[in-house]
Amino acid sequence: MAVASMEKDAINTEDDLHLNNSFGDSGLISPDKEDISRILTVPFSGRIRGGMRPGKKIIIMGIIDPEPDSFDISLNCGHNEENDDEELTDVALKLSARFTERQFLRNARVSGKWSEEETPIAYFPFIPDQPFRIEIHCEHQRFRIFVDGHQLFDFYHKVKSLPAINKIRIVGSLQITKLG
Hints:
Strand order of the largest sheet: 2-1-3-12-5-6-7-8
Function: Does not bind lactose, and may not bind carbohydrates.
Protein name: Galectin
Largest sheet: 8 strands, antiparallel
Organism: Onychostoma macrolepis
CATH topology: Jelly Rolls
Structural class: mainly beta
Keywords: Lectin
Shape: globular
CATH class: Mainly Beta
Order of helices and strands: EEHEEEEEEEEEEE
Number of strands: 13
Number of helices: 1
GO molecular function, one term: carbohydrate binding
Number of domains: 1
Helix content: under 10%
């Protein structure tokens, strides 16, 4: 199996294992399948090398659990490495899928305060026990979120320093198959 060259956009797990990312192939390329299952275990925490910037995108592929409750995907600021207190960390974007309510909520936390939750969606895109692909595109003014190739909504930046957004966290009723 060929290993792609490292891009500066790679996401790293907390123990600094490297996930390779290339523009043509957003998938994980690893020489050892055991590493893949260990690296992509939920709950997942990783680093976004270089932080976010306009033109950068994050792709999350996975499978929803057969009897899901919810899942969350958060893009966080990790500027306070020594004191990594979850309650004090700025959250640039928190996506929360709630299966009972069939909602895909968006929110942000800046200086310890959560913004008003954004709820409207045209449809709920997730199906239990089915694969999905979420793309988070970073633009100058907003994140643009796509699910399975369809634009679902925009979320305007509350955290203004895009390079400070350098962590991703994924928890809940899903399995991750690829991350880039």
